[in-house]
Amino acid sequence: MTVGLRRTFWMFWGELTGVMLVSVCSLAGAATIMLRSPEIFSILKLAGDAWLICPGLQLCRQRGRKLRSFLGKKGGCTLLNRISGVLLAVVGVWLMLS
Q: Is the pTM of this model over 0.70?
């Protein structure tokens, strides 16, 4: 909150509006692609799953370096980093199998 409450408020509403707009457009586009060519939809879905799995595996391998510098701690972030990496990779695999 170093930029002030008003700027944070407008930034929040701008972010919320942007995410909502992208969600509606992507749902409409995904439905169109799914109905017209299911093969392309499957390829896009697998690409999205890989996009989740790769950062998850990278988080597991970093051993908490970035998280430690972000939180300003000296230690104890390795387990938290691995947990978040595994969860991200599991979500990617789960979406791939659904």
A: no
